[in-house]
Design goal:
The chain contains 6 helices and 4 strands, in the order βαβααααββα. It has 161 residues and is of the alpha+beta class.
């Protein structure tokens, strides 16, 4: 029911996306999402030269499959907080640490159950003009790149007023 929608197209292996997560995303959540002013839609945009990005995105969806949206965002956070250690073995380890059933998770990830859904996000991003990551839309207005929190704050406040 939040009046402002922030859509983020991102890549778990992208260093600029990691910087956005560390420096800006958490502030947006604290000041706007947790207060009911902004809802976030996270879209996968795994760049083909980031060999871990596709499976990282699938792994978050496999956790969601078992643990819902809360589980998804726990895995999302784990992936960004451990960007230097992205690997199939770690996705499986982290999913278990978050409370997912290991066998079900492994089956989901190994089968590519969500590969086409991740690719669909990528295609959608291309159609709306995303060329690199991270890319954002706030109520349809584009913000490109890992901009400082103040840029997002201004755009959000403009939409709220």
């Amino acid at each position: 029911t939040a009046p402002v929608t922030l859509i983020e197209f991102s890549d778990y292996q992208c260093p600029f996306c990691g910087r956005h997560y560390e420096q800006t995303y958490k502030q947006i959540v604290q000041q706007y999402v947790d207060t009911g002013k902004v809802k976030v839609a996270f879209k996968d945009f795994p760049l083909n030269f980031h060999e871990q990005a596709q499976k990282a995105a699938e792994s978050a969806r496999c956790v969601r499959d078992q643990l819902g949206d809360d589980g998804y965002y726990m895995m999302h956070d784990k992936l960004f907080e451990n960007q230097q250690d992205l690997s199939l073995a770690n996705y499986k380890k982290w999913a278990r640490e978050l409370g997912a059933d290991g066998e079900d998770f492994d089956s989901c990830l190994d089968s590519g159950k969500f590969a086409s859904a991740v690719k669909a996000d990528f295609v959608q991003g291309q159609k709306v003009g995303i060329k690199g990551t991270p890319g954002f839309f706030i109520n349809g207005k584009s913000i490109s790149g890992a901009q400082p929190f103040e840029v997002f704050k201004q755009a959000i406040e403009d939409e709220l007023s």
